[in-house]
Every structure is written in structure tokens, then in C-alpha cells.
Amino acid sequence: MSPLLESYTMGDIELANRVVMAPMTRCRAKTTNPDAQTELYYRQRAGAGLIISEGTQISAEGTGYLYTPGIYTPEQIRGWTQVTSAVHEEGGKMFAQLWHVGRMSHTSLHQGQPPVSSVAVAAKDSNCYAYGENGEPGPVPASQPRALATEEVARITANFVTAGVQAIAAGFDGVEIHGANGYIFDQFANGALNTRTDQYGGSTMNRLRFTLETVDALASKIGSTRVGIRLSPFGRLYDMQPFDDEENTWLTLARELSARNLAYVHLSDQTAFTSLGISREFLGSFRDAYNGTLILTGALDQDTGEELIELGLTDLAGYGRPFVSNPDLVERFRNGWPLSPIDMTTLYTGGEKGYADYPSYAEQVESTPVESD
Ligand SMILES: Cc1cc2nc3c(=O)[nH]c(=O)nc-3n(C[C@H](O)[C@H](O)[C@H](O)COP(=O)(O)O)c2cc1C
After folding, report:
1. Residue of 183, 200, 238, 358 with catalytic role
2. 369 pLDDT band (50/70/90 cuts)?
3. Most distant CA pair in the chain: distance in Å?
4. Residue 74 CB-density burial (10 A; 0-12 exposed, 13-18 middle, 19+ buried)
5. 321 lines ligand 1 (CB under 6 A)
6. Dihedral of CA 352/34/294/330: which sign?
7. Where in the numbering of this chain does the NADH:flavin oxidoreductase/NADH oxidase N-terminal domain appear (predicted)?
8. 180 CB less than 6 Å from ligand 1?
9. Radius of gyration (C-alpha) of the chain in whole angstroms
10. Residue among 343, 271, 333, 304 at smallest CA distance from 17
């Protein structure tokens, strides 16, 4: 049997297989509330061993893109409860990705106020999705942020904890801290950007302090085995520049997380999006430094997912884009059925097209006219 199809025990959570649906923002939440379409979309994909939700804001302050969902109001929590019930009905498991974008935001989303970050430096050549000068929604350059005061950092940690508690109340099996892809935790960890002189800047451990304080605070409230974290070592998205002790920073974090008995660490390999990503050599070093469940996502196909599991370099294999256009991805892997191509033009457009309307393979075959001679 393909190792991807084997069941896997992740702490006290049983996964039906080792295929993970990676978190994907789809900008379908007009009102920031998950709705019936969201429920259908995730229900269709519940064949994954584990679904990780799209990035979900922990607070209004954490928002950087219009039409993305949150988990800080009663309506949002009600919406997510419908989604998790649907996924559980289908036998799936689901974690919520908890998101604060930090500086990847725009003043029009914050009543004219700047977004927050480790330092007051804007991300160059990086767009968020907000209101342009004409008041119309669209891609706009990320605004100049303000640096968080030392005592404010704890407030953001507290917002993560509240969101985590609410996610569990909404029926999620756990939460994934979005520590990847240039967002708020990356903005603290990155030594080229973070020039703070307080306990959240400078040394490696200082730059990791905010991340570890948030992990610990969440773990103490909802249990460490309900907490996962996503990281993107060597990720260059959103103006994350190289820095001196880059490899050491990620391996230090790996060792720190190892001691904490988490649900998992999820590595986001950006090779498909930027020139640099996670080499196999680095993956091996990370694996040695981190002794818990590891997920790797980024440009994997069935063969590379199987190979990495067989080599022991990852426990679970994450798939993003393949899940957009193949709701029944696991069944396609199981049966060797071909994958449907993704429509990149409808990824973030809102509306029904390109969201929950991709057919399963069985539906595809049914709707194909039989040729007669
Ligand atoms: C449409 C889209 C939205 C995404 N949104 C998120 C997100 O909300 N959070 C996140 O951590 N990564 C996000 N990603 C990155 C994916 O989780 C994944 O790492 C990436 O697509 C590479 O995996 P793939 O090659 O299997 O698609 C997104 C990717 C895509 C294509």
C-alpha cells in the first residue's frame, strides 16, 4: 500500500491517512463568516487525513486581506462549527490555522491606522488585499507598519489564546499557529528585519521569544497536543530577506519545539513560489532536531510525497493546489486516477466559480458523454 494511504496516530488524534490538505486562503468570506459554501467546500475535501483551514484571523487587527474569515466573533464561531461538524460527519479531522498578518496589511483595513509589526519597516513589493485610493477592493501595497511596544506583544499572544479556545469550542481538533510565509512571527524571527532592542529582538532566542511564548500560552490553555505550528525556513515571500544565523534560528526553534510535545510542526517549502526553499539536507537536519510529527508541504506530487515518507524525512505530506481542483485527492491517489487541472484565475475571486464546483472523479466520469460508434 502507498505510505500516503496508511493511517497515522498524531498524539491522541487518529488520522485515516497521511495526506494533509494545506491551508489555503480562498477569499470567499464576504462577511468574514464561514457559510454554507465554506461548509460544502471542506466537506468535499474531508477524505484528507487532516484538513488545515485557510488562514483565519485571530482579531480584526490581524487582517490583511478582505473576504478572509475570522474566529473572534460569535457569528464566525457559529460558521466554523457548521464546517467542523461537516468534516467530522465525513470522518475527517480539521485544525484551524490561526493568523495575524502583522505588517502585511493596509491602513484601509484599520480605520486609517497603520498595521503592526516587529519594526516600522514596510514589506517591499508586497501586496495585501484591501481598499485602494478609489475605495474599491483590490491588491494594494502593504502599508508602513508601526513597531509594537514591548508590553503589546503579550496582548497579541493573548488574542491567539482566545482564538485557540474558540476554535476548540467550534469543534476543531486543534489549531495551527501561522508562523510561516512572512507574517507576524516571521517578522520577529527574521534577523535582517527585526532590529528591536528589547527582549523580542537581537539574539536568536529573543527573536523566537514571541513565537515560543504564544506556543506555550496556547498549549497551557488547550493542551500541547492540540497545537501545531507552521514555519517556512528560508522562505522569501513578502520581503523576508536572508539573515546571518538563518539555519541556526530554525534549528534552534526545532529543538525548542521538540521539548513541547506538540501536535506537529508543518514546514512550508516555498520552492514553488520563490527561488529558494527547503533543501533535503536541511529537511534532514530539521528532522534530527525535531522529534515530533512533521508535515512537509510544497510542490509535492504523489511520488515525492511517498518518497519523503519512505525516506523518513516527513511523517505527513501536505498538498495545497492539488486539493483545490481535486476534492477527492486521496481517492485519486488510491486508484491511480488522473488529477484535474487547477484554474488559477478563480483562486481568490470570491463567488461560487472555482470553489466547491470542482467534481470528484466519479462525478467527472458520469458527466462525460459516452462515445458511440
Ligand atoms: C490559493 C492559495 C492560498 C494559500 N493560502 C495560504 C494560507 O492561508 N496559509 C498558509 O500558510 N499558506 C497558504 N498557501 C500556501 C499553501 O498552503 C502551500 O504551502 C502552497 O500552495 C504549496 O503547496 P502546493 O505546491 O501543494 O500547492 C496558499 C496557497 C495557495 C495556492
Report:
1. 183
2. confident
3. 77
4. exposed
5. yes
6. negative
7. 7-338
8. yes
9. 20
10. 333
The average pLDDT across 26-46 equals 97
Residue nearest to atom 31 of ligand 1 (CA): 321
Cα of 22 vs centre of ligand 1, distance in Å, is 6
Quick one: average pLDDT of 28-44? Answer: 97
| pLDDT tens by residue, 111-159 | 999 999 999 999 999 999 999 999 999 999 999 999 999 999 999 999 9
Pocket lining: 23 vs ligand 1, CB cutoff 6 Å? yes
Residue 223: what residue type? G
In this structure, the residue with its CA closest to atom 13 of ligand 1 is 24
Grid cell digits, residue 309: 515518507
* Cα 158 off chain centre by: 20
The grid cell for 213 is 511564548
pLDDT-derived band at 306 (thresholds 50, 70, 90) equals: very high
Domains of the chain: 3-367 (3.20.20.70)
183 has catalytic annotation = yes
Of 4, 19, 21, 24, best ligand 1 pocket probe by most atoms within 8 Å of the beta carbon: 24
Beta-strand runs (E) in 320-371: none
All three cell numbers of 28: 470567499
What dihedral angle (degrees, nearest 10) is formed by the CA atoms of 246, 248, 250, 253?
-140
Question: For all residues of the chain together, what is the average pLDDT?
Answer: 96
Q: How confident is the model at residue 275 (pLDDT cuts 50, 70, 90)?
A: low
Counting other chains too, the contacts that 193-196 makes at CB distance below 8 Å and 24 or more residues apart are 193/118, 193/119, 193/121, 193/240, 193/241, 193/243, 194/118, 194/119, 195/119, 196/118, 196/119, 196/147
Question: In the structure, what pLDDT confidence band is assigned to residue 1 with cuts at 50, 70 and 90?
Answer: confident
**pTM score over 0.90:** yes
Which of 19, 21, 25, 50 for mutating ligand 1's site (highest number of atoms within 8 Å of CB)? 25
Alpha carbon nearest to ligand 1 atom 14, residue: 24
